[in-house]
Amino acid sequence: xxxxxxxERYRGRSQRWYRGVPMVYTGLYNPENAVSLAVSSPWARxxxxxxxxxxxxxxxxxxxxxxxxxxTIDLKGTDRLLSGLSMFRDRHPRIRCNLITFDFGTSVGAxxxxxxxxxxxxxxxxxxxxxxKDLMWGLYLSDIVCSEFEYSWLSSGVIYEALAMAKxxxxxxxxxxxxxxxxxxxPML
Length: 189
Fold this sequence. Notes:
The chain is an alpha/beta fold. Helix content is 35%, strand content 11%. The protein contains seven helices and five strands; from the N terminus they run αααβαβαβαβαβ. A five-stranded parallel sheet has the order 3-2-1-4-5, with helices on both faces. Helix 3 runs parallel beside helix 6 and helix 4 runs parallel beside helix 5. The two termini are 25 Å apart.
């Protein structure tokens, strides 16, 4: 409903397209060619080190946008991901679980404070906002790619990138929202 109200407010005389144009990924962004991405990434060794130190490596390149002061149309629910990571770590202390994320979004400061509050400093690894071609090697090395946890989106850049690299997606999706349009959806955790 929030997005429908925004649409009505700003649409003017525009016609709405319900099926967006999908992002196109070249042959570069796929598991077979992923190793070529490591050559140019300034973060390749850091990603590889985290891979070797992890039983479970999670990757979140979603903008950090959450909390009551964030623009509501942009909410990503990153706080839910961090709280969930804390719960997982508490329940499975023997699993070496690490999360790669980026200094990207209006709530980075709040996310870093939450990481500290939850005692996740040794499990959450921050990288500067970077180019897609440079982060894709880390996405390839990960076990799970984290999507959004606030709104139920069927597609986004993160989802397309995870699918292109054949990675499982962890996020929030209300399948009933899409049941009238699609017989089945891609699998998601």
